[in-house]
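Consider the following assembly input.
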Amino acid sequence: MGSVFGSKLKISIFGESHGAAIGVVIDGLPAGETIDLDEVNRQMQRRAPGGDKTATPRKEADAPEILSGMLGDKTTGAPLCAVIRNTNTRSADYGNIMSAPRPAHSDYAAHVRYGGANDVRGGGHFSGRLTANIVFAGAVCRQILKRKGVDIAAHIYSIGNVLDTPFDPTFIPTELIERLNGEKFALVDPSIEEKMREAVGEAHAKGDSIGGVVECAVAGLPAGIGEPMFGGVENVIAAAVFGVPAVKGVEFGSGFAGSALLGSQNNDEFYFDENGAVRTRTNNHGGALGGITSGMPIVFRAAVKPTPSISIEQKTVDLQNGCDTTLSIKGRHDPCIVPRAVPVIESAAAVAVMNLIL
Amino acid sequence: MGSVFGSKLKISIFGESHGAAIGVVIDGLPAGETIDLDEVNRQMQRRAPGGDKTATPRKEADAPEILSGMLGDKTTGAPLCAVIRNTNTRSADYGNIMSAPRPAHSDYAAHVRYGGANDVRGGGHFSGRLTANIVFAGAVCRQILKRKGVDIAAHIYSIGNVLDTPFDPTFIPTELIERLNGEKFALVDPSIEEKMREAVGEAHAKGDSIGGVVECAVAGLPAGIGEPMFGGVENVIAAAVFGVPAVKGVEFGSGFAGSALLGSQNNDEFYFDENGAVRTRTNNHGGALGGITSGMPIVFRAAVKPTPSISIEQKTVDLQNGCDTTLSIKGRHDPCIVPRAVPVIESAAAVAVMNLIL
Amino acid sequence: MGSVFGSKLKISIFGESHGAAIGVVIDGLPAGETIDLDEVNRQMQRRAPGGDKTATPRKEADAPEILSGMLGDKTTGAPLCAVIRNTNTRSADYGNIMSAPRPAHSDYAAHVRYGGANDVRGGGHFSGRLTANIVFAGAVCRQILKRKGVDIAAHIYSIGNVLDTPFDPTFIPTELIERLNGEKFALVDPSIEEKMREAVGEAHAKGDSIGGVVECAVAGLPAGIGEPMFGGVENVIAAAVFGVPAVKGVEFGSGFAGSALLGSQNNDEFYFDENGAVRTRTNNHGGALGGITSGMPIVFRAAVKPTPSISIEQKTVDLQNGCDTTLSIKGRHDPCIVPRAVPVIESAAAVAVMNLIL
Amino acid sequence: MGSVFGSKLKISIFGESHGAAIGVVIDGLPAGETIDLDEVNRQMQRRAPGGDKTATPRKEADAPEILSGMLGDKTTGAPLCAVIRNTNTRSADYGNIMSAPRPAHSDYAAHVRYGGANDVRGGGHFSGRLTANIVFAGAVCRQILKRKGVDIAAHIYSIGNVLDTPFDPTFIPTELIERLNGEKFALVDPSIEEKMREAVGEAHAKGDSIGGVVECAVAGLPAGIGEPMFGGVENVIAAAVFGVPAVKGVEFGSGFAGSALLGSQNNDEFYFDENGAVRTRTNNHGGALGGITSGMPIVFRAAVKPTPSISIEQKTVDLQNGCDTTLSIKGRHDPCIVPRAVPVIESAAAVAVMNLIL
């Protein structure tokens, strides 16, 4: 029951990497909302592998079919189900992982969890491919949120040790949001792209992979959204974002760096802006105080671990024969998923935010 | 509805800092479990202010009264309710915060959220005092978990820039766990205490506060616990730990640092130990792969922001008069809550883990 | 985890009949709502035993203490906890029920469920006394609902074979609602009271008990509230009302009788009333179509089984000695709980309706 | 968010009568369970229209395609999604219902709920066709339950005033269960079929419809399953069964009839059977005491209202023109859905029971 998220807007994700299809049911969408499916597809293309040399060579249409919940271009209020057929699956590539779990993959943990009955081909239900469903759901939600004045944008904060310019957390300009929302390699400072690609290329050349950090901002939420304690902005967003495979850390505002500061450095002073609105001069709190929005942008970062699949030989165990063995994952090698994680994390945030505001 | 947590074991927290009482209802506890209330009280004393010069001068008995759910020293299976009366409240200290929200506090966000009807005295329902309920619930759960072989221990990973020795994430010795579980200033390396107290004392002397990081380990969980996607170990623990006020980041295993690594550096190789059990040589994954336990200790860190309340004068707004003002919080000044956050975060983890294993 | 109800407004009930106290936490109440606690107490007195010869001789203050969630007479938006101390408990009356489960009571089922660790005194957490918490929560909700134009009233539809006049389901007059809301023996036709009391008295005289049916109406909900399938009006109300001990059936509108009809008899024709509002001429649908309100009153009936505790000797088993035995419950004998069930069922409906409209 | 049911096993239902497809995602199925899809299809055929003169003339393959969650004939532990394509839809039949809501249908309530954006063709998401998803999910669950010794069988308790022989609630023979599970017109006493068909035929001949009651038994559950208050057997089953369109009442054991009895008549005496198991001589409690199973069969009845669609002319309103009008539903006329409701109600019970035992 782990693949259902949300209280007011529920998404239920299904599918396995090499099964017939993947998909998502979105329950609780408002009725009568216009959804531009071309824009949804554009968001899905940002996540789709292919079309970028940092990505896995598997090329997929990733074209969702809407089975329910829409009439023409409008939501009906009934659950919206979208299905994406799996094609171009090459299960043979994964021939030995049933016996030899891939380091840092879910293989071993899932093997124990499901008593060996799980679909291991391509990672099964744990495959990164399942994030296409999150992007679909998020892209639908984002169009509804946009009409309420809420925008979500993320960028590659870092790959390895190469850093983009961080967001100014007190103000996320609309033009920046729009530009980022259209890019496959989303950067605040595009001039850093070459260095980042070099870092990826270096790892790739060695048969290795590399991780990074995605920074995400939610702009336009009014103050007063959220609940104390366990229903807070941070809890709900983190619960969604940790649902993105490879995310191992989530921090809001000044986050871990802020914990090394003094109160006088980290506290954000309030002031009235020119329109009489209460704002803070800095945004170390990342847009949420006591779990509730302050009216400042929500800003968080998600740590994305390096892709586990590498062609460098690694030690692991042979579960069938009970002995040590080695593993080298050839052919299907995605050296850096951080650029593709950008729309996924934006989308997970969008689903979380819908649950906060509905 | 933000103060309820859990699916299989539900805790419902209530209370306001300067109201009649605070408390918690724990629904879903197994029946017939012996609970040593002295040990529960010891855990609550670790969180309680007073008895340590880093803490707030407010001294409270924090003695919970059990209203239901226990017969003698055993759980009955019915909801367990514990209530802690509020005493020693000095509301006058907070006289002006209704009009002038404290920077980095929930005051302003809550004011908007509740249309001004919320209890602002002492932070109301947002007060750190409410974490006593989490410690109570966690202390009860930890005794049940211990009998299942599951131990939870945390330590002060850092205060400001002073760092303790991190856990060896591949092995948390029982003696270390037991020692840490008994301490009010829990450190892997106790020799660092003096330096940490100096950092706190320096901040205190200036009327300032200081943040830090708590590292927490859950040892003894078998492999195969958890769910994919949104029901994973990380999601459930993060959703609980972000319920602790002042926590602004949560990372598992190598976390943010790991995202700067190569796959070959971050991947954890599997091996068979001398007992034929599958283990990993390193534990950069922090005990969960694909959301499911690997059998290695769960290790995570939580960033605790510096206490917002400082006596240094800060700029803020006067909501009643619509003008800028300044604020200096005298008298009640807790320069560093990180030591007291240790048992709270252990307890939030305990409640989360109960939900994973039940 | 069975004693928590609701998604948007959550109530968490605790307590055992002969423990220290019973109580309820209400999470998700709107802030700034005025609550007249005298009116709440009046509702609780309608349920309280004593003051009426049909009721159990146990007399209790049933005076709730508010521990949190209110400032003066207003809700703060934080969880509202009310506690009612147990007094006047005479556990000796129940001396033998640990070994000999009472027929039709939860004793045996709970004994197995909790491995014998549950508190059996007075029925423990399964005691009808726990319904005081439902009345408390419902009385709070009803004041909020009333300000939104929503009224809830129930009456004794029948005791044994003595029937009150049913509601006219198409229109519940305000005066009737107000009268019923103030009565301990609520009847549409008060002239039937004597006959009903005779039926109760006859059962009482024989050491027996008698059941009945409560009919409840929710007036003033606009059309369009609720969700299809499992989130419908009927599902949510039934899930709450079956939480009232002794309720064994729930039917809406024409219910079971309607299932024996033809469509042409049971269908409710639509028409425009003098104000241009869409209404139905009859209300066999009980106010909900497809799970969603039609704008007509919600009308449902709940079957309340005869109180299990009777002083007539009954056969049962001796669990300790593994042999048959007999049981006669002396002293504490409530011959008919139907009158007191009226405010409990109104209250369960109120909590359900709050979850539908929030 | 109304089309998601369950806590431990979650089903998420989607689809609209005349959309592309309907389907269901089942999240939380145990892994490694063999599912005989032919048996699933047999159950679906029991519900499918056609093949029986009491049913709607619409003939559908109702052949579900499994998109995920199975490998060969075994569950993988990942969410199982099944999709059924819609074919043979004749939207023209429903040309005027957008403006003229059908009496007793969801049309008007849904129109208000969704602001007119819902898919009205064939009832949209409210169509009885959606129950195919419940049967699919239930049929999968029933195979898993059967291996745990739990069987579920229902029969047509009544159509109009024609009654089948009720279950003996103390014992449901295996042969009876198996026979009923294979029938499209399931009766304890098959000799009553002719009379029932006559009642249906009479209604049909007049262009009318007729309702009935389905009685359902869950045999083989041990004592001690369930939770007090809101997590009880009755609450969970009722919350699921009220999800079946047309169900307007649910009663357990002696239900409404029992509420007219004396305690001495309705109480079920305990005894030890020949194997030393605790049983009750009668089963007026319907298998649950205090919300928890007693070890006796769970027996409940669901009132199914007469199908709203009739060709007899009915009065209704013209929402577009704001005037009264009349409506006669030609062509698509299902005079009695009670026989087809049998497998749907068995299936809803199965999903509920899975949530109780997991």
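Chain B has nine helices and 18 strands. Ask yourself how this observation constrains the way the partners meet.
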